[in-house]
């Protein structure tokens, strides 16, 4: 059975974020605005998203 996936898009600039928030976004694999990455829907990834929800857009991938 395939695991669920989450598509994450960086919608706002990293400028002005705290160093910890910036590191969290970069750890998700996002470097540029409007860049998209796909990750497994795990508790770890969900926790990272919860730290910077104001700069990300999250959608479920079928």
Notes on the protein architecture:
The chain is of the alpha+beta class and 62 residues long. It has one domain (5-61): Ribosomal protein L30/L7 (Ribosomal Protein L30, Chain: A), CATH 3.30.1390.20. It has two helices and three strands. The protein has helices spanning 19-27, 43-51; strands at residues 5-10, 36-40, 56-61. Strands 2-1-3 form a three-stranded antiparallel beta sheet, with no helix packed on it. The longest helix has 9 residues, at 19-27. The radius of gyration is 11 Å and the shape is globular. The mean pLDDT is 94.
Task: Assign an overall shape.
Answer: globular
Helix % is: 25-40%
Under CATH, the topology is which?
Ribosomal Protein L30, Chain: A
How many domains, in number, for the residues? Answer: 1
User: Which value, in Å, is the CA radius of gyration?
Assistant: 11 Å
Q: Uncertain segments of ≥5 residues (pLDDT<50)?
A: none
Strand content: 25-35%
The CATH homologous superfamily name equals Ribosomal protein L30/L7
- How many beta-strand elements? 3
Strand order of the largest sheet: 2-1-3
- The chain-level mean pLDDT equals 94
Would you kindly provide a brief summary of this structure?
With about 60 residues, the protein is α+β, with helices and mostly antiparallel strands. It has 2 helices and 3 strands, in the order E-H-E-H-E. It has one domain: 2-Layer Sandwich (Ribosomal Protein L30, Chain: A).
List keywords for this structure.
single chain; 62 residues; alpha+beta; Ribosomal Protein L30, Chain: A; three-stranded antiparallel beta sheet; 2 helices; 3 strands; globular
């Amino acid at each position: 059975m395939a695991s669920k996936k989450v598509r994450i898009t960086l919608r706002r600039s990293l400028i002005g974020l705290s160093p910890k928030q910036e590191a969290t976004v970069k750890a998700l694999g996002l470097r540029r605005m409007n860049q998209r990455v796909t990750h497994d829907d795990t508790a770890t990834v969900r926790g990272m998203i919860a730290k910077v929800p104001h700069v990300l857009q999250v959608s479920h991938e079928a």
